[in-house]
Amino acid sequence: MVVAVERLITSDILKPARYLGNELLAVHKPWDTTEIRWVLTYPEVYEVGASNLGHIILYNILNAQPRQLCDRAYLPGQDLAAKLRETNTPLFAVESKRSLTEFDILGFSLSYELGATNILEMLDLAGIPLTWRERQGGRGEFTDAQSSFPLIFAGGQTATSNPEPYADFFDFFALGDGEELLPEIGLVLEFGKQAGLSREHLLLDLAQIPGVYVPQFYDMAEDGSVHPCRPDVPKRILRRVATPIPAYSIGLVPYVETVHDRLTIEIRRGCTRGCRFCQPGMLTRPARDVEPDKVVEAIEQGMRATGYNEFSLLSLSCSDYLSLPAVGMEIKNRLKNENISLTLPSQRVDRFDENIANILGGTRQGGLTFAPEAGTQRMRDIVNKGLTNEELLRGVKTAWEQGWDKIKLYFMIGLPGETDIDVLGIAETVSWLQRECRGKGRKPLNFNLTISNFTPKPHTPFQWHSVSTAEFKRKQNLLRQEFRRIKAVKVNFTDVRISAMEDFVGRGDRNLGKVVRRAWELGAGMDSWYENLDQAFSAWGSAIAQAGLDWKYRQVENGEWNLFHAEAPKNREDGENTQLLVAPNSSLPTPHSGLRTHSLNTPFPWDHIDTGIEKKWLQEDLQRALEAAIVPDCSFEGCSHCGVCGTDFGHNIVIESPAIPKFAGEFVPNPTKAQRLRIWFGKQGNMALISHLDLIRLFDRVVRRAGLPIAFTGGFHPMPRISLATALALGATSSGEIADFELTVPVEVDTFREKLAREMPTDIPIYNVEQIDLKASAATQLLETAEYLITVAALAETTPIQWQNWIDTIKAKEELWYEQITKSGKSQLINLRDRLFELELVETHNSIAESMSSVIRYLGSYRQDGLVLRPEQILFMLETVASVEFQLLHIHRNRLILGV
């Protein structure tokens, strides 16, 4: 059953266009012609979820499967969530507007340790029981009948690394890459549905698929480790590996501005650099390059199909993609005349050179981010960063010489073996880089620093180490004092409380399920958002205490869950204290004596997840870390013997770079103004919920997709010469909007209209296109009056005769004074009657509440100098003459009238 969301998605909620589900390239498959219906549910607000590349790829892949459809759902904003609860309306999928309970399977992305509370919020809003036991009837027992609720599963980095804290809530987990795994799951579901399999048999069949972990078929031992409770499921569950397919990255062009508002194409999956703190690097091996020709083809096709003016190349380490300069330059040359820019995520500073600088530069030079991670060479060797001071300086200096005045740097504190000298080395390194990058006529090099707290992650060599909250605070204060004397540096520190909470949950076992649920009940949610930190920390702290696990949290908070101890102070030539690794067969008692001891051989809750990397290798690499021994990148040097490469996970795929094309030059705005066209268009239906800024962005993308020769402004940030006459209130419809376009090459009016209309949403019709003189004033300067149809309800019993009398009374008056507050906060009286030229009652009808509503047409002043008569001021006039309270139900702008 389709949820009647039109009553809920209205202009009074924040960014209602989040929930429309009719974005460009959205796939709408007929419900009745499909067997299996998926919902990919992203547990974050739309702006985050809709721009997530994995979300887009899997959405496209699932919709490419025969007899299956995939819809989407996102965490609603607090305003819509409140409306859903007030009206007892279930959370819906954005495209079909169907309740989530109508689908066969719901897949959640779990990519953050504290993100499960958002998932519980979505399940609760959908009316779905939170745990797999509740969904199976309360006692966790299987029945012969199919459950009335969809299967609930999770995938993503956190789900793959350690699913145990969340095992209570999901029927199964999809571990690793989903491109091949999810279609296999779909086939099993289709067969099971046709065969009428019980939920138990269906889950048992799913458990046979490599990469599918069904936690209810496994029990947790006293030491936290997990083992099968039945013989017909695997002891260890394999992480899946897939080859990236760039073509599936093209899709979903949102109307609202998202956090990554650009086309994103993956160029390399996996990283073999071997940074010892980095979980993504360990969980995505082996490294797999994408063929350069496929990348170029996907970008060119994607830019034409989406209309974006920016694209990004994505990888854990873009600089390790040897074809990066060649691919970037090829695309830059092909799209030279379209004002396209390229952005890259954090890069390897040691690989940053003039070739990469050339593809990033241009008229909209983007930001630049490097991650040295540590401030001293010794610490960078301990974490296996593979970066020398000379390489760091060369990369930063190259960026400065190529025109960058601001660079973002990532550092980390609390790493194993770190001393105060290493901490202060961060400030010394930044100061040194500034001194080395000075020149006449140049501003000082500015740095924006993010200094995060080391958080141990499962499946990494540093998973045995943690640092106390007090120690983090002390080190942060050391740096704050040191940075006070350094100018042109902005420093951001991560919150130590949330770091400890991430550690506690991320390395937890199944006992934390009750903590996650209670934290959600106490208000935890959106925990990665800065404004929610205090509420989140309070909720998590209370939940931990109520679960009787505060002793265990104190272990994390006090930094006692580790295998390191400080050696007695010695006089060394380098003046530093060392830290030693406890021998593998030794152990350290925990404060909660008798419960558990820790050693390198102590089982972990995630040991049953087979990521390909052997635990023994992680132990050996931990020892190498304390010896500051470097392990080379096996993509480019010898094998590191981590255990990944083989038949299950494949091997590294490194593609040599083609020749770098000759640079064809930067985009130069064409100053030619060969033609000006004025269009009249409408804004109907759902498009009324698109904001003015979103509409401007939409026109830019439409013109690009249509291939129209739009002119650009000059300067450092050229913008398309598209000018909308005026803004329209959010939620208002219109049949009389006006926009001006300037073109560099004349285009037939009918051709222009046809191309523009073809790319426009159907709810933005093009009524008329006229050519105007090149020197004519812009429409925004010629505005004189505007005609509106407004629907107004009286909050009292009225008659049509009364409505007409009120209209006549207003027309008969010469003065109707209204107090207006100016932008500067001053009060002034204005005569609204001077701004009203025509007023008539069009029709009246009774509303549901037995009060009468009317449609009123008025023609009023609409000048850019501020002489404007707004619809709400018509209500003020009515209330003045009628002494009745009115409500404005709808606004429709009939037309804008231009002066000569």
Give the tags.
900 residues, alpha/beta, 8-stranded mixed sheet, 26 helices, 30% helix
Concise overview:
With 900 residues, this protein is of the alpha/beta class.
First-residue to last-residue Cα separation: 53 Å
Question: What does the largest sheet look like?
Answer: 8 strands, mixed
Which structural class fits the helix and strand makeup?
alpha/beta
Number of DSSP strand runs: 33
Pick out the low-confidence regions.
Answer: 565-597
What's the Cα radius of gyration? 31 Å
Helix % is 25-40%
Q: Please work out how many helical segments DSSP would assign.
A: 26
Verbal overview:
This protein has 900 residues and is of the alpha/beta class. The chain is 30% helix and 20% strand. Strands 24, 25, 26, 27, 28, 31, 32 and 33 form an eight-stranded mixed sheet that branches. The longest helix is centred in the middle third of the chain and has 17 residues, at 420-436.
